[in-house]
Amino acid sequence: MVDDEPIVRESLKDWLEDAGYQVATAETGEEALEMVAKQEFGVVVLDVRLPGKTGITILKELKTVKPGLKSIVITAYPSTELAVEALKLGAVDYLVKPVAPDDLEKLIRETLLKCESKNKEV
């Protein structure tokens, strides 16, 4: 969970942990890149507006260092251009804040299930 807003980051983290997920958080994209380099993640939830590098820049870098890592982009400032760019870069979805925790959890679950079934294919 990468979001510079502590209330968003922590409330979604708590919600997802209550749903049974292990959740790591980062306040900046740079922090997220360091975490991804050190351990494996199933899905990254990435805010568009972050201090330093933008979420879209981080998404590009994540795709370079971990091409198979799935990402969900969230933003409080939606735009068609950003949505198209995020999806072209491989984001699973582009959600507008406030994100409904149930919807996010469902999207994460479906994304992880697709990855799991894909890994089982021969």
What would you say this structure looks like, in words?
It is a single chain. With 122 residues, the chain is an alpha/beta fold. It has a single domain, classed as 3-Layer(aba) Sandwich (Rossmann fold), CATH 3.40.50. The protein contains five helices and three strands; from the N terminus they run H-H-E-H-E-H-E-H. Strands 1-2-3 form a three-stranded parallel sheet. Strand 2, helix 4 and strand 3 form a beta-alpha-beta unit. Helix 2 packs parallel to helix 3. The mean pLDDT is 92.
What's the arrangement of secondary structure elements?
Elements: H1 6-18, H2 29-38, E1 43-47, H3 55-65, E2 70-75, H4 80-88, E3 93-96, H5 101-120
Parallel strand pairs: 1-2, 2-3
Q: Do you know the CATH architecture?
A: 3-Layer(aba) Sandwich
Strand content: 5-15%
CATH fold topology? Rossmann fold
Q: Order of SSEs, N→C?
A: HHEHEHEH
Under CATH at level 1, the class stands as Alpha Beta
Class of secondary structure makeup: alpha/beta
**Residue ranges: pLDDT <50 for 5 or more in a row?**
none
**What order do the strands of the largest sheet run in, or round the barrel if closed?**
1-2-3
Instruction: Please outline the major beta sheet.
Output: 3 strands, parallel
- Quaternary arrangement of the chains shown? single chain
Query: How many strand elements?
Result: 3
Q: What coarse outline follows from CA principal-axis ratios?
A: globular
Whole-number count of domains:
1
